[in-house]
Specification:
This protein is an all-alpha fold. The chain has one domain. The radius of gyration is 17 Å and the shape is elongated.
Length: 163
């Protein structure tokens, strides 16, 4: 089961890159009034992983006081799945009015990412999925997801500035 979620994290990264290229293909048909209002959501995504990890770190040392590294690894992976689902939501909303077939890829990515995030959100599920895996492996996959989501996020926000 752990390989399934590690594979899903790589699939999310790949779907982010492909969805971004679909977004660029139909960029001239996008309603820019909607884009400007949704850009605020993407700007929040820049800081969300840092804020979540900081809060989990404080809670681990002050309140939970057990399983600190597992809790941080859990928060790291789950927040990256949530960030991916928000970016997919952004792309799906922007391309929804263009063609119905174009929206399938971001919606599929959003559903997969949300499923993984919801399933892994309870710490017990995370521990049961990754019980025989070194804790650094999910962290590396979370880092890959973070890099692809930040890259996609940056490109989506700076696309308008180039035109």
């Amino acid at each position: 089961m752990s390989y399934l979620f590690l594979g899903l994290s790589l699939l999310i990264g790949l779907l982010l890159i492909v969805s971004r290229s679909v977004f660029y293909r139909y960029y001239d048909k996008i309603n820019f009034n909607i884009k400007k209002s949704l850009d605020k959501m993407l700007r929040i995504i820049y800081f969300a992983p840092v804020i979540v990890l900081f809060i989990i770190l404080i809670l681990t040392f002050t309140y939970f006081k057990s399983k600190g590294f597992i809790r941080l690894s859990h928060a790291w992976l789950v927040v990256n799945f949530w960030v991916g689902s928000v970016i997919f939501y952004y792309i799906a909303i922007e391309t929804a009015k263009i063609q119905k077939l174009v929206i399938l890829l971001p919606v599929a990515g959003m559903v997969i990412s949300m499923f993984a995030a919801i399933y892994l959100t309870p710490l017990q599920h995370y521990e049961s999925v990754f019980y025989n895996i070194n804790i650094m492996i999910p962290n590396v996959f979370g880092l890959i997801m973070l890099i692809t989501s930040y890259y996609t996020n940056h490109k989506l926000l700076t696309k308008e500035a180039k035109k």
